[in-house]
Amino acid sequence: GQQLNQSPQSMFIQEGEDVSMNCTSSSIFNTWLWYKQDPGEGPVLLIALYKAGELTSNGRLTAQFGITRKDSFLNISASIPSDVGIYFCAGGGTSYGKLTFGQGTILTVHP
Amino acid sequence: NAGVTQTPKFQVLKTGQSMTLQCAQDMNHEYMSWYRQDPGMGLRLIHYSVGAGITDQGEVPNGYNVSRSTTEDFPLRLLSAAPSQTSVYFCASSYSFTGTFSTGELFFGEGSRLTVL
């Protein structure tokens, strides 16, 4: 089946630093999405991308849909302690009813 | 507005026991799905439904059954629990889930943590 490789697996940063994470796939997707999971809760959608090359921002978050449709990245600027959590990329739009998730990036922010 | 509600939040089973994880949503969503989350493996799709009376298999369906008799409810049944089914299970729903992905947002429940001894 389709697989996504998300990196890095974990990050330990200081408050105020910028963060970058990405997802790559051997298959193309028509949609890329980024979710965040806080401890003990379900994932929540951060950004959705629907067009190859699209660059979208949501506050301090910026995400891009790669031109090849096989990758996406998420940047977080000026990190704060509440950014702590697990970030997941997800690809969709090629198999009816199915999203494929990456393995997740665990983000720790030190005050 | 409750959103997606999962019960129970925690459950311990012995190998071979059966149980049902409940999921209910009050947003009139057509699409509902079940995922399991394991360390280092992300979220993997177990089963999904695009409407009442319609279900289909995801990536890891073995050992699980589902049914969708109403729009609101999508229970997940473990027929004979095995230690490999120890995991955190998430139910998620969405307005629609077409092949072209007109809306990509899944709304997740808070999860059900299952331990099989």
Characterization of this structure:
The complex is a heterodimer of chains A (111) and B (117). Chain A is mostly beta strands. Helices cover 0% and strands 55% of the residues of chain A. Chain A has no helices and 11 strands. Chain A has strands at 4-7, 10-14, 19-25, 31-37, 44-49, 55-58, 61-65, 71-76, 85-92, 99-101, 105-110. Chain A starts with a strand and ends with a strand. With 117 residues, chain B is mostly beta strands. The interface between A and B is medium-sized, with 30 and 29 residues.
Q: pLDDT below 50 for ≥5 consecutive residues: which ranges of chain A?
A: none
- Choose one word for the global shape of chain B: globular
Low-confidence stretches of chain B: none
State the end-to-end CA separation of chain B: 36 Å
Query: Average pLDDT of chain A, to the nearest integer?
Result: 92
Give Rg of chain A in angstroms: 13 Å
Class from helix and strand fractions of chain B: mainly beta
Largest interface between protein chains, with number of residues from each side: A-B, 30 and 29 residues
Q: If you compute it from the alpha carbons, what radius of gyration of chain B comes out, rounded to the nearest whole angstrom?
A: 14 Å
Helix content of chain A: under 10%
SSE ordering of chain B: EEEEEEEEEEE
Distance between the termini of chain A: 40 Å
Could you give a short description of this structure?
The complex is a heterodimer of chains A (111) and B (117). By secondary structure, chain A is mostly beta strands. Helix content of chain A is 0%, strand content 55%.
